[in-house]
């Protein structure tokens, strides 16, 4: 199965090890992708556990579940990040030990797509991450003005990047 985060990698070698606690995200972008996969697969314990300690007391698994009850998350586009080490990793440079830099910060710009009540929506956010106890954690984010209900042509390429037409791919999840 292809990963929920639209990385074109199998779920088993992309986000699943993070969700199962078998590995820890090494970058803020990996954490962001795994959080999307957790929302898509309704694993809200993981979502809560990846918030900063400051934010966790304000939330609960029940609240996260209720807020996402009617949403079907299906596609993710990851934009820019601030962290230069991600560029080095993408260019094949030896892994940068960002995870061990306590207090390190990063931002990740992303757009997530979901269906709610048979309507297509997008969430466009610039998220703030921090290394806490040697692990990347989500703190908060700034929503962009283009969030909300969107129209998307059924014959356009699917937002998930599968290469199929939208109507033959993820549009079927709105039913």
Task: Summarize this entry quickly.
Residues 27-83, 99-141 form the YchJ-like middle NTF2-like domain. The chain has 175 residues and is α+β, with helices and mostly antiparallel strands. The chain has five helices and five strands.
Give a description of the structure.
This is Zinc chelation protein SecC. InterPro entries: NTF2-like_dom_sf, SEC_C_motif, YchJ-like_M. About 9% of the residues have low confidence. A hairpin with a 2-residue loop joins strand 3 and strand 4. It is globular and about 45 Å long. With 175 residues, the protein is an alpha+beta fold.
What keywords describe this structure?
single chain, 175 residues, alpha+beta, 5-stranded antiparallel beta sheet, 5 helices, Zinc chelation protein SecC, YchJ-like_M, SEC_C_motif, NTF2-like_dom_sf
SSE layout and pairings?
Elements (H helix, E strand, L loop, with lengths): L15 H4 L8 H13 L3 H6 L11 H7 L3 E11 L2 H7 L14 E12 L2 E14 L2 E9 L4 E2 L26
Antiparallel strand pairs: 1-2, 2-3, 3-4, 3-5
